Amino acid sequence: MLQREESKTSAIEMSIESSRERRRRRRRQRGRIERKQSSSSSLIFFFFFIFSASSSFVCLFSLFASAETKVGPRSTTTTTTTTATTPFATTATLSHTGGRSFTNSSGAPNVVKPRETRIINGVPSLVSSPRNRIINGVPVYETSAFPFIVAIFGSYADENGNTVRDFRCGGTFISTRHVLTASHCFFSDGLVSNTRNFYDKMEVLVNSVQLDQGGEGQELKFIEIAEAHGNPDFNGINFDQDCTVLRLVRPASEIFDVQPVRLAWGAEEVDEDEYKTVYDENEMCYVVGFGVDSSGFLTEHLNNATVPLVSEETCEHSDSYPGWPYGNPISSSMICAGYKSGGTDACQGDSGGPLLNARTLAQVGIVSWGEGCALENKYGVYTKVSKMRA
Question: How many domains does the chain have?
Answer without folding.
Answer: 2
